[in-house]
Specification:
alpha/beta, globular, disordered N terminus
Length: about 260
């Protein structure tokens, strides 16, 4: 289709980029000249809409690679990385929303089990480090790379059915702080973005999400929800040279919602 790799061979690798914050981030970074690699896991029925967005990105004269794979399987990670050149990934974005939304104490007995915690913690926290380490081990990061993950206010507020995800987000933020220090000698900057309440497919899976939405509208000083593209804009800001001294922090993108 007449595509050419951008002059700097600069890629953004987005884990969980077929919808929500991940897709918005891919669209934004593509518009700013990044080549895009998206790893996602979707049913066949969801693919047509995603492919439309992919084709739109490709019309910006950048390359887009997509992999409909389970990011938790080591062999899938190897497949993705072998198709990325050395010293080519400028931005890694972790946007995985895969986990259990069971209650700790369920009336019907279907409460959280260790296995539920295991898969949630792996998908929504530890996989970030696994992919970061794999990129380092395979010399895929460009100099002054940016390593970003999405967290949420549910990390420190109690939401029904959010116990496993909250634990994962807490671990994610701990990993962020540790990587910020230990990966600094490699000139990798590691940060988290805490988005305000955003109406995505993963948000709507939370039981009684309508109540969370209503509460957010009341708390937010602008009386509206956060938009995915507003979060994507901050990923782009963090990717810029001017953000090279931001490391080890949680940036809130919520219009002040979390202040109340």
């Amino acid at each position: 289709m007449g595509q050419t790799v951008n002059p700097e061979n600069k890629w953004a690798l987005i884990l969980g980029g077929s919808s929500g914050l991940g897709l918005a981030t891919a669209i934004k970074l593509a518009s700013e000249g990044f080549n895009i690699c998206i790893v996602h896991r979707d049913r066949r029925s969801n693919i047509p809409d995603f492919e439309k967005e992919v084709e739109s990105m490709r019309r910006k004269n950048i390359l887009v690679k997509t992999y409909n794979l389970d990011i938790l399987k080591p062999e899938n990670k190897d497949e993705v990385l072998k198709n990325l050149a050395e010293n080519s990934v400028k931005v890694l974005v972790h946007s995985i929303a895969k986990g259990s939304l069971k209650l700790l104490n369920s009336i019907n007995g279907n409460s959280l089990q260790k296995s539920d915690f295991d898969i949630t913690m792996h998908a929504m926290a530890f996989s970030w480090y696994e992919w970061t380490k794999a990129l380092i081990d395979n010399s895929k990061f460009l100099d002054d790379a940016r390593n970003i993950a999405f967290t949420s206010e549910g990390n420190y507020k109690v939401w029904p059915s959010y116990g496993a995800v909250s634990a994962a987000k807490s671990s994610l933020e701990s990993l962020m702080r540790q990587m910020a220090i230990e990966l600094a000698p490699l000139n990798i900057k590691t940060n988290c973005i805490q988005a305000g309440t955003t109406k995505t497919a993963s948000f709507e899976m939370i039981p009684n999400s309508e109540d969370l939405e209503k509460a957010a509208l009341e708390r937010n000083p602008y009386k509206r929800l956060t938009k995915p593209e507003e979060v994507a804009n901050v990923v782009y800001l963090l990717s810029r040279t001017e953000a090279s001294w931001i490391n080890g922090t949680i940036i809130k993108v919520d219009g002040g919602e979390s202040l109340r």
